[in-house]
Write a structure and sequence with these properties.
- This protein is α/β, with parallel strands linked by helices.
- The chain has nine helices and ten strands.
- The N and C termini lie far apart (53 Å).
- It binds adenosine-5'-triphosphate (ATP) and magnesium ion.
- The site of magnesium ion has 3 residues, from helix 2.
């Protein structure tokens, strides 16, 4: 009996996504760039995890690896216990379409369609009826505070409103994991605060795991886990071997590095 209990506890704590010794190199002419170096990490079900670090540290590359878009040269990624890159590219595309969402820094919309129809699209692609998809899109837009913008077109929304709508679009299919890469990069402080609160509340309510690359302290305050990426290596700020064990110190270091664009 006691053994059974141990097993149950292990199952509850198993990560939704895990990497073991993941590395990725890029060849540019004669040069080899080590973008991600020997990264082992675990993210639990429903966790909100922040990855931060200077430009060029490998954050987006790691995110692409986690999303099944970029096969690592070394190491393995486990999604819900299955080795992600043992699936074929087609199978990974299906997993991504159904169960993984991505929230980018800048949004692309079908300009001639209303927000409801834009947000409904992921469900239409998954074969749901237009009626069902529109109902769910309406519900999601209400959840993110855009109840009075349902019929608007994308260019009639502010950038903050567009990011909220993008969040609705990312969450509508109820993914296992939502990956967000600098989703607040182009927002003012108030919009950042709003989006932060809405994202965390919606993620929690829907039980969605969120992994986010951000430089925003607003998010850092709300996350229990901070992963610092530096020169391709990933450090848990709470680990005593981390180059920084204080999140503000780590942020100050990141802020003092040269800026760039991925
Ligand atoms: N497709 C690619 N081909 C060649 N090199 C790449 C490729 N993708 C990334 N790199 C290199 O890998 C390193 C890490 O890039 P990455 O985009 O992951 O950094 P990042 O941490 O996301 O930076 P940023 O904060 O600017 O978005 C960089 O040196 C980059 O030039
Ligand atoms: Mg990047």
């Amino acid at each position: 009996m006691a053994d059974n209990n141990i097993q149950v506890e292990y199952q509850v704590k198993a990560p939704i996504i895990e990497t073991v010794g993941v590395s990725k190199m890029f060849h540019i002419g004669e040069d080899i760039i080590s973008s991600v170096s020997d990264v082992s990490m675990q993210v639990g079900y429903g966790d909100f995890t922040i990855i931060f670090g200077p430009s060029g540290a490998g954050k987006s590359t790691l995110m692409n690896i986690l999303m099944g878009l970029e096969k690592p040269d070394l190491g393995e990624v486990f999604l819900k216990g299955s080795s992600l890159y043992e699936y074929s590219e087609e199978e990974r595309t299906v997993i991504r379409r159904k169960k993984i969402s991505y929230l980018p820094p800048v949004q692309y919309w079908l300009e001639y369609m209303s927000m409801v129809d834009n947000v409904a699209l992921p469900l239409i692609f998954l074969g749901q009826s237009q009626k069902q998809a529109r109902e769910k899109a309406t519900e999601m837009l209400v959840t993110v505070g855009l109840k009075d913008r349902l019929k608007y077109r994308p260019d009639e929304l502010s950038s903050g409103q567009q990011q909220k709508a993008a969040l609705a679009r990312a969450l509508i299919k109820e993914p296992w994991i939502m990956f967000a890469d600098e989703p607040t990069a182009h927002l003012d402080t108030r919009s950042v605060e709003e989006l932060t609160q809405i994202m965390l509340a919606a993620g929690k309510k829907m039980g969605i795991t969120i992994i986010m690359v951000t430089h925003d302290l607003e998010f850092l305050k709300l996350s229990k886990k901070w992963l610092l990426m530096r020169d391709g290596r990933l450090w848990d700020i709470k680990d005593r071997h981390s180059p920084f064990t204080d999140v503000r110190e780590a942020m100050a270091y990141v802020d003092n590095q040269p800026k760039g664009k991925a």
